[in-house]
């Protein structure tokens, strides 16, 4: 079993997570997903303040927009914002920005709060080109016993989070 990484239910699909500053765990997730590091990953937290270490979430040009989107419990919205100096390249990939989300899912919030900085990686639990896992059984089908899976209920959304660019206000997914 790979140390320091795990699968868990999110708002719509199972995700793979770890401490974003644990490079070996992040690289293990990328290997499991067959995903190039250049693409970057999403960071998720229980509150906006935790994300500030990694991302420019309190910029007056978009902080109100982020807060408003994250207060809507009927949606899961990820925002792409400029990264800070602390955000490692294995998280941001080839970008000067990073994708961040505040989650309403109780288990995601709880898991994020157990991380040293209150932030964790959140990427769908699936190898590249396959559908994201929607159950612990599907996670096991994809990855076997390679990682611990936190079983639980999905958050009730049909699709993974929307992704928006905070600077251009364009929808990316």
TrEMBL record:
InterPro entries: DHBP_synth_RibB-like_a/b_dom (IPR017945), Sua5-like_dom (IPR006070), TC-AMP_synthase (IPR023535), TC-AMP_synthase_SUA5 (IPR050156). Keywords: ATP-binding, Cytoplasm, Nucleotide-binding, Nucleotidyltransferase, Transferase, tRNA processing. It comes from the Bacteria. It catalyses: L-threonine + hydrogencarbonate + ATP = L-threonylcarbamoyladenylate + diphosphate + H2O. GO terms for molecular function: ATP binding; double-stranded RNA binding; L-threonylcarbamoyladenylate synthase; tRNA binding. GO terms for cellular component: cytoplasm. It holds the Pfam family Sua5_yciO_yrdC. It is found in: Cytoplasm. Its main location: cytoplasm. Its EC number is 2.7.7.87. This is Threonylcarbamoyl-AMP synthase. It comes from Thiomicrospira aerophila AL3.
